[in-house]
Amino acid sequence: MKISVLGAGTWGTALTILLAENKHEVTLWSKLPKEIEALENNRSEIKNLPGAVLQDSVKLTANLEEALQEPEMIVMAVASVFVRETAKSIADKLPKGIIIVNVAKGIEEATLKTLTEVIEDEIPQAEVAVLSGPSHAEEVSRKIPTTIVTGAKKKDVADKIQDAFMTEFFRVYTSPDVIGIELGGSLKNVIALAAGVLDGAGFGDNTKAALMTRGIAEISRLGVAMGGKYETFAGLSGMGDLMVTCTSKHSRNRNAGFLIGQGKTAKEAMEEVQQTVEGVYSAKAAYLLGKKYNIELPIVEQVNLVLFEDKPVKEAIYDLLIREKTEEHTALKW
Predict the structure, then answer these.
(1) Does the global pTM surpass 0.85?
(2) How far is CA 175 from CA 78, 132, 158, 235, in A?
(3) Catalytic pick from 105, 113, 160, 188?
(4) Residue 238: phi, psi to the nearest 5?
(5) Catalytic annotation on 96?
(6) pLDDT digit string (tens) for 263-320?
(7) 1 and 73 in contact (C-beta within 8 Å)?
(8) Contact (Cβ atoms closer than 8 angstroms) between residue 78 and residue 86
(9) What domains can you pick out in the chain, each with its CATH number?
(10) Whether 20 contacts 55, CB under 8 Å
């Protein structure tokens, strides 16, 4: 296929390498000429992707018109805060039925829409899908075995994406639960930030396990209220992505949280990580979604207080522990 990848960050570049490995004709675009220039000058020393090599067959460009020369599929890999702007800039250049695969993770704070909904707003003629799961770019670019899930409203669209991305080291599942996949990928970043905070503040494995378990409970409650399926949150884009993001050395959200746990502000942590920390942006949106759907999200609430109101981490932890007593699963009957 002829595929255009929009966004030459670590994930966009890693997926470009994967797609080129699958013999697709791939164009990689960045709005930043310096980013493209750096890749052109050295395809084997890629920032934040040690050991990865960008194939000579990949066309690199900072010209959007050039990037959109009749692609059969578009991969939207720009940071979440730039998804609407990018979608708006390409809308009139795309034919009806073009497949757009969103691989960014986040919720638009101003509208509380998922990123596929944002893309559909701007490009209503497109077939918009999502690709998400436990998949660090650093490992995918080096062919470390990975599994992931693609969600689309139409099965044939999901099947085309599955065929495009599937390799012997990158297994792709399909699902009709687009909203569930997106929410799992977005909200787990908030919990991963909290996991990093716990590590930075010196808490232990017991505390982190409790956070992850109760975190997926919060994600599932909100996700089901918004139309997602419980099975999705128990799967790759839910629990799977949460586990890897909370524990991996590659996780920018966990690493930023670690710095916050050591006393740095959210702004200082993001500057030190030098990558987009989606969890900081998703935290406010998750809190507002909880209010909108009347869903209790105690961890998300405490993360917001730590991030934006300078609440001490230990105080936040103990406020969670001394909440009113309750059952673990209220759906289970005595």
Answers:
(1) yes
(2) 23, 11, 7, 11
(3) 188
(4) -110, -95
(5) no
(6) 888 888 888 887 777 888 889 999 999 999 999 999 999 999 999 998 998 999 999 9
(7) yes
(8) yes
(9) 2-176 (3.40.50.720), 179-321 (1.10.1040.10)
(10) yes
